[in-house]
Amino acid sequence: MKCRTHLDHEAIGLCKHCHRFICEECLLDTGWGIVCSKACADELEVSRKIVADSEAAFAENKTATQIYRDALIANKKFHSSMLGTWLIFFAASVVKSTSYGDSDYAITFGVIFFVLILFSVLKIQINVKAIQKLSNKSIQPTADASAE
């Protein structure tokens, strides 16, 4: 087989990410496999990190419900911080527009930030309900377990 980049060179392996044939000149060793380019090396590193995170989660003996609950908590924290950011920008746009006497500016950015604030509040509420639902499920025994 020939290298995908250097058609006159014999391929010595396959890129671990894109599975294209590569020659010795194209080869990059990531320590976790050979790749054909920096982009494939970056993608392979993302995959390696996902595997490492999964192994760490399994090492902690977390259930899928616990992992999902942790992700929801992180998402709730993110949207809580974004809510604060949108409120600050909303206040700054109102102050800026009143100092210039430009009501169009205030209305435009007021609506934009109101929508962003509303989205963050709704996302926080959805996450809180989902977290509570998951917490209740993990505490209460299932119907099958109580029937035994």
Percent of residues in helices comes to: 55-70%
Structural class: mainly alpha
Major sheet details = 2 strands, antiparallel
Distance between the termini: 62 Å
Number of helices, where a helix is a run of at least 4 consecutive DSSP H or I residues = 4
Structure commentary:
The protein is mostly helical. The chain is built from four helices and four strands, in the order ββββαααα. It has helices at 38-59, 64-100, 103-139, 143-147; strands at 13-14, 21-22, 28-29, 34-35. The protein has a two-stranded antiparallel sheet. Strands 3-4 form a two-stranded antiparallel ribbon. The chain is flat, with a radius of gyration of 26 Å. It starts with 12 loop residues before the first strand and ends with a helix.
In short:
This protein is mainly α. The protein contains four helices and four strands, in the order ββββαααα.
Question: Which terms summarize this structure?
Answer:
single chain; about 150 residues; mainly alpha; 2 domains; two-stranded antiparallel sheet; two-stranded antiparallel ribbon; about 70% helix; flat; disordered C terminus
